[in-house]
Amino acid sequence: MGNPNRDQEYLGKLQDYYADYRSIPSYAVIGDMLGMASKSAVSALIKRLTLAGYVEMTPDKRLAPTKRFFERELADFPIPAGMPAAANDAMSESLTIDEYLIPKPSNTIMVRVKGDSMIDAGIHDGDIAIVEKRHAASVGDIVVAVVDNEYTLKELGRDRQGYMLLPHNADYAPIRPQEGLEIFGIMVGLVRKYR
């Protein structure tokens, strides 16, 4: 890219715009937004971003984001939740939240969690569960199940009496199906927004 630091800053502004409006603005709006007086400067930036793989031109001549446009930097160091570690600004890798959480997009849905029956498993009211739709599950999986014609999110358990659904909150009892138990899918990820 021309000036890598400036281009990353410009890319960040385009990403913020996209987050607000779900589109990449026209060249004129990009120029105004980034303080570029000439159309050729905007054109050169778009060419650099295209060559770097962040945007592409659609058949109807509109700018569109590529998969790389949605990548976010991943620190090359883990963050200890205990004692502080030495600071290091190095970023070594990028990934998209989508590719990290959703292994099979065509077979994955997001489900908003309601209630506190799974709170001791770290699954809170209002969280978004990432669920891979499938009918088979193993004991110990967190599943979305249809039990007696109602959906629920619980851990799949089994004992001598058969399969049951286990809450992770002492205020709730295990659920033993009366009429039937069908696995809708398995939780493969969890999203929580703090603000």
Automatic annotation (TrEMBL):
The record, for SUPFAM superfamilies, names: LexA/Signal peptidase (SSF51306), Winged helix' DNA-binding domain (SSF46785)
Q: Where is the Peptidase S24/S26A/S26B/S26C domain?
A: 79-188
Concerning Pfam families, the annotation shows:
Peptidase_S24
Family annotation (CDD domains): S24_LexA-like
Which keywords belong to this entry?
Autocatalytic cleavage, DNA damage, DNA repair, Hydrolase, SOS response
Q: Answer yes or no on keyword Repressor.
A: no
What InterPro entries has UniProt attached to this entry?
Answer: LexA-like, LexA/Signal_pep-like_sf, LexA_repressor, Peptidase_S24_LexA, Peptidase_S24_S26A/B/C, WH-like_DNA-bd_sf, WH_DNA-bd_sf
Name the family. Belongs to the peptidase S24 family.
The identity of this protein, by name, is LexA family transcriptional regulator
Q: Which organism is it from?
A: Jeongeupia naejangsanensis
